[in-house]
Amino acid sequence: QSEGKTLSSIFLCSILASSNSRITLSDENVSAQAGLCVVLACSFTTEDKDVENITWYKHDGNVTKTIFGSPEKCSVLIHDLKITDSGNYSFRFVGEGTYKWVTKPFTSLTVADNPCLLTFEEPKTVTENDNVTLTCHTLTSCTSDPEIKALGPLSPSLIQSKKSPNTATLSFKVTWEDDGRMFSCQTENNTDPCLIRNISLTVGYPPDVDIVISPEPERMTKTIIQGDKVTFTCSVKRSNPSPDSFTWLKDTKDKTHIDSKQITVKNIQPEDSGKYTCSARNTVGSRSKTLQLTVQCKFYTSGSWVLLLTLSSKHPFNIIQL
User: Distance of alpha carbon 141 from its chain centroid, rounded?
Assistant: First the structure.
């Protein structure tokens, strides 16, 4: 938008046309209510490859934001109309010969008050487990009450919906699954898609992590043998925002690796047994995961080497004959 103009959500269509273009205009007068959408329509056809230009103007101010180019159309879309969008709209066709710098009168737009104009504001970033209330209201002159809907399922036990004249609220406890969820509000008897207001919820939550171990050499089974090179990875299943640091602990000894998800034991030995804990942190908080690793020495019995390794109490490894 240029020179302090207050056009709300009006977009310039600056397109290419030839000097032999044929221009078709829409109606000379257009009226609409505030909050709605309107298209100031036109079209053109070209007869040769000489490239020229068409630019839309409101009054004597040039709307400089270009959003559309086409060899066939040159329309202007105004979304969420404001009273200040009223005025005369014209375009300038830059051609050759008699077409050069011809300014064409176009459409007079009149925007009237809307008795059912909605206000539905997007909340600031919230954190997992917060209690959030969304509020949508319309003017007292509106004879139809607003209604809020979630786009996607919400747990019924977490929702409390209320209505009063010209106001609707939706209260619920936020989970990480609500991040990016869309909510819409419209009046009960609305049939115009331009009078639907949509907002998106942004939810912050700490990292949810898991520990993944990767031995070398790789085997078909989940067996880790004394002497293997073992990589421990702190895998982030979900996080908003992304983690900015990771910390590893073995038992109570700090093995800090900033900005690293991994630690590696190149030659694993029984003394490397213990509790391995990875923690991931973002601006919301931190979470951790602990894995109990027990490695027993190989010992010789009946002509075979046997390795006993237990990986956490939930997933014990069997005795492996080597």
Answer: 35
Domain at 15-112, CATH class? mainly beta
pLDDT tens for the chain, 322 residues long, are: 334 444 444 444 444 444 455 556 666 788 889 988 888 777 666 554 454 666 777 765 555 444 344 545 677 788 889 898 888 877 766 666 556 655 666 678 899 999 888 999 888 889 999 999 999 999 998 888 999 998 887 766 567 788 888 999 999 999 999 999 999 999 988 888 888 999 999 999 999 999 998 878 776 666 677 888 889 999 999 999 999 999 888 886 665 555 678 888 898 888 888 888 999 999 999 999 998 887 766 655 555 555 444 444 344 333 333 3
By the 8 A CB rule, do 100 and 45 touch? no
Determine the number of helices (DSSP H) and then strands (DSSP E) in the chain. Answer: 0, 30
DSSP label at 68?
Answer: -
Q: What is d(CA 189, CA 224) in angstroms, rounded to the nearest whole number?
A: 66
For the chain, the domains span 15-112, 118-201, 205-293
Whether residue 298 contacts residue 322, with contact meaning beta carbons closer than 8 Å, is answered with yes
Residue type, 292: Q
CATH superfamily, domain at 118-201:
Immunoglobulins (2.60.40.10)
Third-level CATH fold of 205-293: Immunoglobulin-like (2.60.40)
Q: Which residues contact 302 (CB under 8 A, 6 or more apart)?
A: none
What CA–CA distance (Å, rounded) separates 162 from 123? Answer: 18
Q: What is the pTM of this model?
A: 0.69
Instruction: Count CB neighbours of 138 within 10 A.
Output: 26
Nearest alpha-carbon partner for 201 in 173, 230, 225, 229:
173
